[in-house]
Amino acid sequence: MIHRGACKRYGSMNGSHFQKGFIKMQTQDTKEKNEIVRTMEDDTITIPVIEIFRQLKKYVLIWIVLAVVVAGLVFGGSLITYTSSATPMTAMVGFYYSGIESGLDPNGNEFDANSIKSPAVIETTLTELGLPLTQVDQYRSHLVISGIVPQGTIDEMTAYRSIFEANNSIEAAKELMNVSYFPTTFEVQFTYSQTDLTRVEAADFLNTLLDNYKTYFVQTYGNNEMFGTTLTAVDYTGYDYPQAIDLFANTLSSLQRYVASLSSNDDTRFRSTQTGYSFADLSDAANTMETIDLASAYSYVLGNNITKNKTSLISYYEYQIDVLTRSLSSAKEKLNSIQDSIDNYQKDSIIVMAGADGANDTTLTQTSEAYDDLITQKIDAQATVSDFQNQIDEYEARLDGVKKTAVGSSAEQEEADAELATLCEKLNTLIDAVNETADDYFETVSLSNAYSVLVPASGSVSSAISAALSGMTRPLLIVEALLVVVYLVFSVVRAFMVSYRRGNHVDPKKENKKQLALAEGTENEKAQRSAEEKAKK
After folding, report:
1. Which residues, 6 or more positions from 266, have their beta carbon under 8 angstroms from its beta carbon?
2. What are the pLDDT digits (tens) for 397-451?
3. First to last CA, the chain
4. Are 59 and 493 spatial neighbours (Cβ–Cβ below 8 Å)?
5. What does the pLDDT look like over 116-171, one tens digit per residue?
6. Which DSSP state fits 506?
7. Cβ atoms 313, 402 nearer than 8 A
8. Which residues are within 8 A (CB) of 15 and not within 5 positions of it... i.e. 6 or more apart?
9. How far is it, in rounded angstroms, from Cα 488 to Cα 52?
């Protein structure tokens, strides 16, 4: 039998035990939650942005100083490199005339850029600078001329290469292999380290050389030195009178052809500021000399049968007739061969159908370049045959006159000497005028822009500094970029280190409060346990 008081006490004890169990479960859940939160906090990486900026600000001055020092070192190294004698003196030249893009010189032959360092140009340069001519070969061996690939060729090769890399195209590879070019711009390097020249003297030598090459270029490709020396180099007094007449006639004929070629290429109606002549003026002067002065001397000498040795003159005429006869025979054979080719040549035909029965059909022949070329060759061959025949006829007439006419007197020989001397003087004056006019034409019109120095060599301090600044740009950018990366990485790592240390730092006051709180909690738990044990009893 259970008393009511006992039931009350049992119920009271039962409620107390339930409440304590519930509190204990809540405490256990809270501990587990705190442990989970603490674990999540340990696994989370926090980026200390503010600390990173602090570190960047803290070390920015050091980075600036390092950047300036590195820039100075790079500039110093670049300046030493460019001012060192081991670095060649460099200049750049360009050629601008019809044919250079095909690798040809102004005369249509293969162009050789090494003519820039021809011995004649180097000798002129050394003489102008007062340097010994014994060093021509030494300086020439230290000059290197290399062509620069045109930009259009680079673009073409790049395009074919891109196509090949993208599609593995065999056609693109073939086109890439077939790309060819002829440079119009050349780099001239002078390695002066093994000479006695300073950098400034080396630059002066190279620039003078390139300036003198322009004169050499004009003289070489202007073809204006072929006359002038022809007559003055030959003492016409050493020839018989009729032979001297032939010498004057040949020289005057060559001079006329030369002036005619210059005039045909001139579309500017050029008039020389040096001589005041145009090519038309010079052509008229040559024609006047031929029809008046030469004709007068010719008629006087041949008409009076003036000769120094009649027997030798007869042998000369006979020899000329024999040589011209053989040349005439060869020219006639060539003419006959061309004529046979023309007779046997068949042009391509086209039949125009006018009706179904073919009654009104028309046959047309097409034009042919080969046939036209044969006609041109025939005309030239006929002119050659006629020229040889005329010369033979003239020498035969001379030979007949010498044999039948008495030799001229001494007085007539003196008159002929005076007339030939006057003719020679006039011809030399005309040749000088042609040469000077041609020089002026080539230098100011025809070849004035055919060659130019694009970038002269420079050995001055300012140019060395400019070259050093230009040469240091790329390495400086690379080094400065590395410094920036190092600066950023160092600042970020430093920020994480400071943040980590700050998170693990223990404050003594907070730690004491924590210990007191734990102690109080322990006393309360002990008291609670003691009360529970008394209640059970």
Report:
1. 279, 441, 445, 446
2. 988 888 888 888 889 999 999 999 999 889 888 988 988 888 888 878 877 788 8
3. 21
4. no
5. 999 999 999 999 999 988 889 989 999 999 988 776 666 666 665 666 666 666 66
6. P
7. yes
8. none
9. 9
d(CA 297, CA 300): 5
Q: What pLDDT, on the 0 to 100 scale, is given for residue 160? A: 57
Sheet holding 185-190, edge to edge: 143-147, 185-190, 89-95, 451-455
Q: What single-letter amino acid sits at 227? A: F
* Contacts for 226 with CB less than 8 Å, ≥ 6 apart: 254, 258
Closest CA to 97 of 84, 107, 87, 89: 107
DSSP element (H, E) containing 519: helix 508-536
* CA-to-CA separations, 155 to 92, 101, 179, 183, 241, in angstroms, rounded: 22, 17, 11, 15, 67
Flag whether pLDDT at 287 surpasses 90: yes
Rounded to an integer, what distance in angstroms lies between the CA atom of residue 378 and that of residue 372?
10
pTM of the model as a whole: 0.53
Tokens of 115: 């003519």
Q: Does the pLDDT at position 310 exceed 70?
A: yes
Q: Are 483 and 63 in contact (CB under 8 A)?
A: yes
**What single DSSP character describes residue 268?**
S
- Would strands 89-95 and 451-455 be described as parallel, antiparallel, or unpaired? antiparallel
Q: How long is the chain?
A: 537
- Coil, strand or helix at 181: coil
| Tokens encoding 418 | 């005076």
Residue 144 to residue 92: CA distance in whole angstroms: 12
Cα angle, residue 217 at apex, residues 212 and 223 outer, rounded to 5°: 135
